[in-house]
Amino acid sequence: MKKIEAVIQPYKLEDVKNALKAIGIDGMTITEVRGHGRQKGHKEVYRGQEYQVDLLPKVKLELIVATVRVEEVVQTLSAAARTGKIGDGKIFIYTVEEAIRIRNDERGEAAL
Amino acid sequence: MFRRICLSLLPSLVWTSMAAPAQVPGSLDARLKAIEESTKSAQSSGDNAWMLASCALVLFMTGPGLALFYGGLVRRKNVLATMMHSFVLMVLVTILWAVVGYSLAFGEGNSFIGGFQFVFMHGVGAAPNADYAPTIPHLTFMVFQLMFAIITPALISGAYAERMKFSTMLVYTTLWMLVVYFPMAHMVWGKGGLLNASMGGSIPCLDFAGGTVVHITSGISALVAAIVLGPRSGYRHEPMKPHNLVLSVIGACMLWFGWFGFNAGSALNASGLASSAFVATHFGAAAAAAGWILAEWLLNGKPSMLGGISGCVAGLVAITPASGFVQPMPALIIGFLAGIFCFFMVTFVKMRMGYDDSLDAFGVHGAGGTLGALLTGVFASSLVNPILKTAAGATLPSGLLEGNAAQLGNQAIGVLIALALGATGSFVCLKIAGALCGLRPDAEQEENGLDLSMHGEEGYNLDA
Fold it and tell me: Which DSSP string corresponds to B347-375?
């Protein structure tokens, strides 16, 4: 099992969700986060007081999938979230040791 | 339309007057007296209707207007404490005013402060006070002036927002009303006051609706408060962005709306002078918003909403002393200059000087009030308001442009007295209040926010 963690533009969330649903991925957790990579922030001015805002709003998706599906999911997710501009975000992949369904103690991929 | 209604009423009027002799017995004198009485009562009703509406408009400026304007500009953790400043002054100043304040401001006393004849509202009733406003009940005049007394200390709260103990703020404001506001209001508007232009003051200073009394005193007191208190902890290290400019926009527009009562109501009747002040007020606000937005656009690259509302308030402040003396076109000029001047005060002068006037009470009210008071001496027109008269009653020229250069000097004296009284008064009151209660909350309380540490509540309970 792998955990796919993607930080994307908030306005791309709907597209990504629909694309993942279309290939049969139902479960995911999303968080509203703030951050930046290479993308520069912006300047705000309030009565002459300047503020450099570096951390921009993003959405973080986390989903756990069977190892065999990783490449397919990453391709789909990446295509749906892409605008081609700086700030589109990143995808990270981790190995997951175990998954447990709390309701009935199912384990492994069956619990996904 | 109006003429058509008059014409259609004419036959019935003729009929009434023909029928009248049968209904009103008595001599011609008695009937004339009856007509005079009813004319007076009709005028009084008209004036009183507008003045009561104006009273409500001016109170609306403090709550919710100023409470929202200031509340939106502070950080989220201080929104209620900041709104509480405005609100509690509606409570505190009203009680002070009823007990002694009105008398000290408008009772007959010496050149500097009124006497005690109106304490506990003694002698203030439905009968008009001929000295101040002969066509409206004395009670209306009293409560109209009360609304001004409420907003003035509330304006100062912009300077000490986010860092004054609540108890200290109550003591400071009570003292400040006694030491600064009541004397200043008496000097400019009270019978026998030193600067009173219409009632024989020795230095007639033109201040239609409170440029010196309200805005200069509060503005300079705000600056002194900001310096005595010192900057908010983290000032210029931590971000201190306005937490909700939407609230501020709503509040500023309510200020603009309420200001029609403030300025046009200061005519104390529903006359053409009230209309003139109404128009000047509106033109001044619009021109100042334009001035601030343009200056910001040219220098910072972007025209901001906060700049727009700051400009409109600056213009309303600057036009306040002038509103009942100037024609519409000078009002545009005064407003435009005020917008640009206050923009520079708030952005460049404050940055250079380093004081932390949290919400720019000095940069907007002190600076705008001073500019407006001086420009009143330039643009005042005897065509709008023939206020300066010879002993025989002939009208004298008002402002510099009419050839009365001395008026500019009188305006400057009024400004200097307001600045001096406001600065020393504010300093003394802060020192006393600080000695009694301690000026600032401790560092941890300030860090947690005054909403929690002073009032035990939060503005936004998103988990509720």
Answer: IIIHHHH----TT-HIIIIIHHHHHHHHH
